[in-house]
Each structure stands twice: as structure tokens, then as C-alpha cells.
TrEMBL record:
Superkingdom classification of source: Bacteria
Protein name: Carboxymethylenebutenolidase
Pfam families xrefs: DLH
Annotated organism of origin: Iodidimonas muriae
InterPro entries: AB_hydrolase_fold, Dienelactn_hydro, Dienelactone_hydrolase-like
SUPFAM superfamilies in UniProt: alpha/beta-Hydrolases
Positions of the Dienelactone hydrolase domain: 19-231
Length: 234
């Protein structure tokens, strides 16, 4: 089925924002909220949604920077876009972002063709938000790729009732060794959390075309993600 943009209404009544929605050919399946990196709903994020739709998921990528600059799409290969992305990241309200994720989860659960289950997948900033979604929303499953700042919110892990999968790049330029160790210390024994380390990999190793893209590691992480989603969402 063709992809389209939909409109979501903010939980706090402050306005509305768009989301890119890709549906499986059957028009039915579990829902997945795809949480963007710091570059907006750009081509890589839309491609991830399309790929998930091909696997049978209703994939929705909301615009998380809509309060600052609606509809922005940035290119990770252009320096001025990197600069703008970090400005948006620094001005991003995490708590309102989590509210937007809950809104998207609720929308997917009620959508025509939904099986009633919904999870999240996030990358970079989105990896952090995926972790917080596991802690603060009703997501049935959450997957975080090279999430930043997770070590600052480890005290929330006890709130996780769904299931969480984290992909950790051991040479992540934005998540140092101390942060990685803190994550393992706090999360390894949690019954609902699985961490996988990718030795020698840097941040964004699963972003096709990116500076640190590694096909072998990306495939391993993506295969693990699909198996996890199949188990948790159907």
C-alpha cells in the first residue's frame, strides 16, 4: 500500500503535527512508532518505515521537532545540516516528545487493521527516546539503536513493564565507555531488557550510506530487531 502523511494531535492541546505512515500490503498488522534521529523525517527514516511495512508492520514516523521547525528534513552529509540538527536536539523537550510517542502508539492501536499491539524503534536521539518509551509509555516492545544519554535515566528502568532491546556500539563517539558500563551494570539483570554490544562499531553503524555504516553489523542488529518484534508484537 502507498505511504502517506497523517496528522496527529498533541496530548497537551498545543497543536498538531504530521507523521509518515507506511502500511503493509495487507493493510493489517502490529504498529511500530519509528523515532527519528536528529535529522527529522528524512529519507533514511522513511526508508526504515517502508522496510518495516514490507515485514508486515504499520510503521509511523512522527515529526518530533514540530514545536521548533515543522517538517524539517536534514542531510547527515552536510555540515550546516549537522549544525542545525544539534540546535534542534539541544532545544528538544524530552518529556513532550514522550507524550508525542504515546499519542502515536495510541493512534496505531486504534487504526484500521491494527492487531492492538504497538512498539517503538529509535535511533540516536530516538534510541534514547525508545528507552524512555519503555519506561514511561504503554509500548509493548521498544528497540533502541545506539541511544545517547541512557545512562542519565537508568533510575527509571524499574518502571519497564514491556520489553526492551538495546543495540550498543562499543566505539560510539557519543556514548563513552563509562556510560556503556553503567548501562550494563544497571540493565543486564533486568528480566525485560536485552543489550547487544557491537564490537568496534561507532555511532550510527546501521544508517545506510552513513559515515560509520557497517553492513554486517547492521544486518545482525536488524535481524535481531525483527525477531524481537515478531516475538513481542506478532
Amino acid at each position: 500500500m502507498p505511504a502517506k502523511y497523517i496528522t496527529l494531535n498533541a496530548k497537551d492541546g498545543s497543536g498538531s503535527y504530521t507523521g509518515y505512515l507506511a502500511l503493509p500490503d495487507s493493510g493489517t498488522g502490529p504498529g511500530v512508532v519509528v523515532i527519528q534521529e536528529i535529522f527529522g523525517i528524512n529519507t533514511p527514516m522513511r526508508e526504515i518505515c517502508d522496510q518495516l511495512a514490507n515485514q508486515g508492520y504499520m510503521a509511523l514516523c512522527p515529526d518530533f521537532f514540530w514545536r521548533q521547525e515543522p517538517g524539517i528534513q536534514l542531510n547527515d552529509k552536510i555540515q550546516k545540516d549537522w549544525d542545525r540538527a544539534f540546535e534542534l536536539y539541544q532545544g528538544f523537550d524530552v518529556d513532550k516528545g514522550i507524550d508525542d510517542i504515546q499519542t502515536a502508539l495510541s493512534w496505531l492501536r486504534k487504526a484500521d487493521g491494527s492487531n492492538g499491539k504497538a512498539g517503538v524503534i529509535g535511533y540516536c536521539l530516538g534510541g534514547f527516546l525508545a528507552y524512555l518509551s519503555a519506561c514511561r509509555t504503554d509500548a509493548d516492545a521498544a528497540v533502541g539503536y545506539y541511544g545517547v544519554s541512557i545512562d542519565s535515566k537508568l533510575d527509571e528502568a524499574d518502571n519497564i513493564k514491556g520489553h526492551l532491546l538495546l543495540h550498543v556500539a562499543t566505539e560510539d563517539e557519543f556514548v563513552d565507555k563509562a556510560a556503556q558500563q553503567a548501562m550494563h551494570n544497571a540493565l543486564d539483570n533486568h528480566p525485560h531488557i536485552t543489550l547487544h554490544d557491537y564490537e568496534g562499531m561507532n555511532h550510527a553503524f546501521a544508517r545506510p550510506g552513513g559515515t560509520h555504516y557497517d553492513e554486517k553489523a547492521a544486518k545482525k542488529a536488524n535481524d535481531r530487531t525483527l525477531e524481537f518484534l515478531k516475538t513481542r508484537l506478532g
